[in-house]
């Protein structure tokens, strides 16, 4: 009896080991990365925003839904042919962190937060999406279902193109007020990454591959209202000058006292704004030396009288050309620029009698 039971026990034991080994290998999961079939897909979201002056304060937020410019692509994953897989998504940004959670520093005046809206079956999700907690898209993918994402499956079994990453919502947050036009150059906000798994276990972070980049470009404009001379024309009377006193070419008349006048300006309180404001002077007709041409000689229409201008605020004596000449405004946004002008003989020798006049425009520009 003992000799018969021995082989039976050995046979059953060996069979049990075989079944257990086979069952254990079926638990091993496979994962890998997914990319766009034509390389990392770039999405660019153009924006153009016009804000009210009262919006331009720390803490103001502007929410912008965008549709990126790019095009569709197919997911291409390194899973074995015939696999049935799930797709997971993550999103990372290389921008510096901003003032709060999920905000990134876009520039000196704006932070940005971003939500991606078109991960299949996931819904709007704020960036970043951690590699340690990726989002699983809806559905599974396989050649048997004619929606494969595995590169080695037959092309006619592949899934249709997608546009994941094209629909995002940006939230601009003012960290420092500004004036005028703020240009946002093309800036990458985040990179969308994806990976596959053949079961519901999420891939590890090192398995994810770059799939698409999402960038922003455009401008934000804040109106700025500046009043020059209370909205009236500045008229400067340079007096009566004997023609015989105009003798020196490119010089002022002999014994001529320059005429002084003030340019009053009021741009409101800009003490908390980092922009620089200047008054730009542009004459109607200007010669190569930046002098305002005030008269043409009748005999040959050659300019014979010009006007030269200086800024003398706080004891200065700076020549201000009439061709995009700049006068710096006080940081408070309100004040007065003290100016001095004198006529100039442009041709030399005695000039003919007669009036002269010139016109220039003052424009406040924001830098």
UniProtKB/TrEMBL annotation:
Signal peptide: 1-29
Record InterPro entries: Adhesion_dom_fimbrial, Adhesion_dom_fimbrial_sf, Adhesion_dom_sf, Bact_Fimbrial_Adh_Pro
Chief localization: other
Fimbrial-type adhesion domain residues: 214-366
Family the UniProt entry places it in: Belongs to the fimbrial protein family.
Localization (cell): Fimbrium
GO BP term, pick one: cell adhesion involved in single-species biofilm formation
Protein's name in the database: Fimbrial-type adhesion domain-containing protein
Keyword Glycoprotein belongs to the record: no
Keyword match Signal: yes
One GO term describing the cellular component: pilus
Keywords per UniProt: Fimbrium, Signal
